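To whoever is on call:

I kicked off a structure prediction for a single chain this morning and the downstream step that reads the tokens threw a length-mismatch warning. I double-checked the sequence; it's 307 residues and nothing unusual in it as far as I can see. Pasting both halves so you can look.
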Amino acid sequence: MRSVCSAAALVFLASAACGTLSNEDIAFLSALPRKSDLHVQVPVQSSSTQPACAIGDAADWRKAKDRGDQINSAVDGVLALVDVVRAIPPTQRKTDLRVWGPFADQQHPGVEYQVNILRFPPPPDAKESLAYLYSFEGRRTGGPFQTVIDGFFLGGQAKGGQGEIDLHFDSAYALGTNKPDDPHGDMVIRYDETSDPRTVQLNLGQGGLALDPFDYFYAGYSNGSGRFDYVLNDPIRGTHEVISAFFKANGSGTANITFRTPLLTTEVDECWDELACLTFVRDPLSVTKLCGVNASCGVAAACPTVP
């Protein structure tokens, strides 16, 4: 994915003509998402020093920040191309259409790209007054265009609207612009900033980019609290954990964990404080070994109130 986006970015920087953006051009470009619209914001724990925890460390929660950073890195790769277009005037202007390109790919001879943003009336039941479709397409010279990135947006501007952006890895493979370690299939990102919390949903069906295949979900409130659904796999132990974590701005929180091994599937509930020390664990089958032979340990009343 990095090669697809970085190569295309160089194309635009090297080939774009000088000029200025009109107010209408800016309106079209406002349909494209920014990093702040798609980033996952998991709070950093208040202490970098590992404390002595009575029950144990909230290890799965500590990994949430790394998982969120991996998602943000994947998002940034997609938006590397999208962001470059913002500074370049379109080559074609029509009432409800803007077109950039085609531009030759300087790193991959024989490949060129074109960007289209179309404005159209929103669906009858939509709350928003404006709707856009966009596509970033590549082709071998003389051949048909293949969609590398596409998406839609409902709203007057990305901040306060909702949309979807898709990256098609197989198109990059067909063009020969992929990295050897790029996954196949699609990465789909849906986002909604029409209310509090804002939400981001990322699906990477075949895995890759340091992420396991999963339908990741994030909801972030303006006060810093939120929810993050993610997955942790341990191939050595043969475990698969699906985690729904609910957190406060200070990092304390609760989680429901669906724990799968080759022999069983069970659910574990955990609570932790702002230092990521577990304060309560419910583990009926003792899969975590945190409570010994007991079904639970700690104090349930110590669990924070979360969204």
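Update from on-call: the warning came from a stale cache, not from the record. Cleared it. Sanity check on the structure: Residues 59-85 form the longest helix (27 residues).
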